[in-house]
Amino acid sequence: MKVKIFDVVLHNVPAGKSPATHLEDQINSFLKHYPNCQVIATHMNTLVVPAGPATLPGAEAIPPSVILFATFFYQ
User: Fold this and answer.
1) Which of 7, 36, 41, 57 is the most buried (most CB within 10 A)?
2) Model confidence, pTM
3) % of the chain with per-residue pLDDT over 70
4) Are the C-beta atoms of residues 7 and 69 closer than 8 Å to each other?
């Protein structure tokens, strides 16, 4: 069994494009390269990274971030 992890960082999704469409594009691109793969299972997870202070003097604070993960288990 093999594993492929796809991720979508919400603030990096182009304006006007939904996270679902962005993730779908990644998955379809993968499936074009591996047309004969058999998906055994999938798993979705979300990671929320809170905002943080600036790490260097004069630097901007680290903004919050939301990352969506889709994991494919396949053969």
Assistant:
1) 7
2) 0.78
3) 100
4) yes
